[in-house]
Amino acid sequence: MQPAYSEKHGDFTVPTHASTKQNFRGVHLFSLFFLSCFIAGVAARGATAESNDNTYWPFIGSTSAAQQYSPLRQINENNIQHLGLAWYVDIPSADGLVGNTVVAGNTIYEAGPGSKIYAHDARSGRQLWIFDPKPQFIGTILTFWGNQITRGLAMWKDNLYVATGDCRVVAINRLTGKQLWEAKSCEPAESYTITGAPRVGGGKVFIGNSSIDAASNRGFVDAFDAETGRHLWRFYTVPGDPSKESASKAMTIAAKTWGKDWKNIGGGNAWDGMTFDPVLNLLYIGTGGPQPQNPLQRSVPGGDALFTDSIVALNADTGEYVWHYQTTPDDAWDFDAMAPILVADVSIKGESRRVVMQAPKNGFFYVLDAKTGKLLSADNFVPVNWASKIDLKSGRPIENPIARYYENKDGRATVVPNEHGAHNWQAMSYSPQTGLVYIPAMLNAGIYQSTYPPGGVKVDLGAGKSEVKSKTSGQLVAWDPVAQKPRWRSDLDLPINGGVLSTAGELVFQGTATGEFFAYQAQTGKRVWTWYTGSATQAAPSTVMIDGEQLVLLPVGAGGAQQQVFADWTSTKKSRGPVRLLAFKLGGSAQLPAYQYSEYFPRPPRPRYPADEVSKGAALFDDSGCSFCHGYQAIHPTGRVPDLRKASKEVHDSLAAIVLGGARTSKGMPSFAGAVTPEQLEAIQAYIIDEAWNAYEKQEHDKNKPGD
Ligand code: HEC
After folding, report:
1. Nearest to residue 107, comparing CAs of 614, 608, 583?
2. Do 297 and 369 form a contact (C-beta atoms < 8 A)?
3. More exposed terminus of the chain, fewer Cβ within 10 Å: N or C?
């Protein structure tokens, strides 16, 4: 299957010797099926001459269109009960793998925390090499976050591309594991980092960035020459200082939608979802919310704040603006629209339409015309309360004014969903076979409290002792994008689960935060297979043929917000298992070694402090940001951040040097000099000691329980 392809224009012709058995949607499905193959073919041709398409998984997302779909059907609903572990390999990383794999030439490539790239032999799991771009921590929360989370890599010809937390794009040769070039995209000292995977297309590498909502800088996307690393273009997502740059067409449109004070313009970071469309030669980018987040802190009266929370289509050659669609105008809730952007040809009212689909944080599923950005349909895929519907004529949400916390008398509102979103960055999947989109959805709520002036907004996301905690869970939603209706739903205990894969074997695969790997019948949602991995999962599975056998690959290990923000949930101990790459096949009979999560709390080195000091410290522990990394209520997250409840006498004696003196900044522990006073640190210490005693006493008490 080698359809003609012109790299320059991205056009292609579809061969006619197709045989798709379960093709029930007519001709356009043929093109979809071949689109997957042809893109696989393109990457493959660049790689090795003998390549056979289905041995390749060339993109995170499977194809450039990010459909997360495989035409393989060796594993199907009739034999799924024989699916077992072919092999597993431990990954030497404390933090979990969140990006999915790419596969070429019997080799599996995986990007992990710290932007390390791991190469493994697909036949045995044997490790071939590890590439480490050695990102630097500069002592900020931002670089800590960026260096911990790497959402994957891109492949083009024999090259692999990964982006680093200190703002570089690095190209390496996939056969040797050696670096080819590196290019700087953003500046960490200006509060930028990168957590997203680069995307490739048309001989270019595309990358965005993140400010983890902590800074009012401008989001942008850079394009580099895939061969040489030469910088080709940059597209800013929000306007800048009008005295310093002449406005492009895009920035002229955008500038009108902000208040007059350009200094209060920021955000719109394209921190993950991005899709190159070879047919239209467009790059679709998804952007994050505006900064500052509380609209009162932006100029009042403000406007829609373009191009935040938008899908923007750019000319992939020049970076010029082509169209945009904004999902949440004048956002106050951090409803980023940076979820994966899926491209497909679907039949709508009897007509084949090339569409862009996204399920952003705000809980609505959008179908847009890929060429024009025109909204074709939208409906909510989980319950939401911030808007009742999307008006198709104007393309705007019909908002519920109650959700605008900053306009309410008490400055407060309970909003569904919250800023973690009804769906975040985890891969969704589109099966051309069933015509359904499978969304790794979340059910949650947040209590938004305006703190302006002097600050902005405080959001209770449902962690720790929150009153909205009980509203939080997960769901796999099978969504009909044409009817804009659910076909089935499957409930999950925790919110942040893995990305989704669908296959022509009528199966849908997903790993969970609670450590299971599930397979569902794609049409009915019947759970047909469960395999307990013991490790929380966020990555999406991928699947390839290796030596005639279909292999399903799953990277596991708690990572990102799943391990940190929800540490008290993933600490169910069922899913705190090791960081691994797992491979499954029919008849696979490998076993994971028995794993029992255990921990021991030493006797705390100091006596408890007075209760009022402790409660002061508890509030400061959250407000100063300690809980962001060390867990709510000091409940230890997995990964490389230490459990403060186990801190030794030496650590407590040198607390000021560590927290205020910056003694450990090179290892990711920021300096809080200026942000936390020595008196406040004493209160925080009182709180840490108190939690240490709570954990220790519980352990000693449980030890003495009869029968335990
Ligand atoms: C951006 C993430 C992050 C934040 C925020 C953070 N820490 Fe840390 N912290 C770390 C990491 C990573 C380490 C481990 C450093 C190392 O390997 O030595 C650490 C280590 C420590 C240690 C040493 C523990 C030990 O047993 O060695 C203490 C104490 C500590 N942090 C206290 C705090 C306090 C108090 C706050 C809030 C004021 C805080 N941290 C905020 C990431 C963070």
Report:
1. 583
2. no
3. C
Query: What is the dihedral sign for C-alpha 199, 202, 205, 208?
Result: negative
Taking the centre of ligand 1 as the mean of its atom positions, its distance from the CA of residue 651, in whole angstroms, is 10
Instruction: Please check whether residue 166 is in contact with residue 138, taking contact to mean a CB–CB distance below 8 angstroms.
Output: yes
| pLDDT level of residue 18 (50, 70, 90 thresholds) | very low
Calpha distance 580→356 (Å, rounded):
33
* Distance from residue 644's CA to the centre of ligand 1 (Å): 8
Mutate which of 141, 629, 671 for ligand 1? The one with the most ligand atoms within 8 Å of its CB, which is 629
Ligand 1 atom with least separation from CA of 141 = 1
In angstroms, the CA 60 to CA 38 distance is 16
List of residues 6+ apart from 162 with CB closer than 8 A = 111, 115, 117, 133, 150, 153, 154, 169, 170, 172, 197, 198
Ligand 1 atom closest to the CA of 625, numbered from 1: 5
The answer, yes or no, to whether residue 20 has pLDDT greater than 70, is no
Residue 169: both structure tokens together: 């794009």
Which pLDDT tens digit goes with each residue over 205-231? 999 999 987 777 999 999 999 999 999
Give the integer Cα–Cα distance in Å for 562 and 150: 14
Ligand 1: residue whose CA is nearest its atom 2: 629
Q: Would you say 51 and 112 are in contact if contact means Cβ atoms under 8 Å apart?
A: no
Q: Is the peptide bond before 292 cis (omega within 30 degrees of 0)?
A: yes
**Token pair for 397:** 């949400």
pLDDT of residue 425: 96
Q: What angle do CA 223, 365, 60 make, to 5 degrees?
A: 40
Task: Name the band, by pLDDT with cuts 50, 70 and 90, for residue 477.
Answer: very high
Spatial CA neighbour of 207 closest among 224, 189, 230:
224
Q: Is the CB of 144 under 6 A from ligand 1?
A: yes
Q: Long-range pairs for 623-632 at CB < 8 Å and ≥24 separation? A: 624/672, 624/675, 624/676, 624/680, 624/684, 625/141, 626/684, 627/464, 628/141, 628/564, 628/565, 629/141, 629/144, 629/564, 631/564, 631/567, 631/568, 632/463, 632/464, 632/565, 632/567, 632/568
| Structural tokens at position 96 | 């979990």
Structure confidence at residue 393 (pLDDT): 97
Q: Is the CB of 254 under 6 A from ligand 1?
A: no
Closest atom, ligand 1, to C-alpha of 628: 5
Q: How far apart are CA 330 and CA 289, in angstroms?
A: 9
The rounded Å distance from CA 690 to ligand 1 centre is 17
Peptide bond into 453 cis (omega under 30): yes
**Closest approach atom of ligand 1 to CA 648:** 26
User: CA geometry: angle at 281 spanning 277 and 287, to 5°?
Assistant: 60
pLDDT in tens, 627-639: 888 988 888 888 8
Distance 656 CA to ligand 1 centre (A): 11
Residue the block writes with tokens 């007075």: 610
Ligand 1 contact via 624 beta carbon (within 6 Å):
yes
Distance in Å, CA 631 to ligand 1 centroid: 11
Band (pLDDT 50/70/90 cuts) for residue 467 is confident
For residue 341, count other CB atoms closer than 10 A to its CB: 29
Angle at 624 between CA 614 and CA 657, to 5 degrees: 85
Average pLDDT of the residues of the chain: 89
Atom nearest to 675 CA in ligand 1: 38
Asked if residue 4 has pLDDT above 60, the reply is no
Contact 430, 474 (CB under 8 A): no
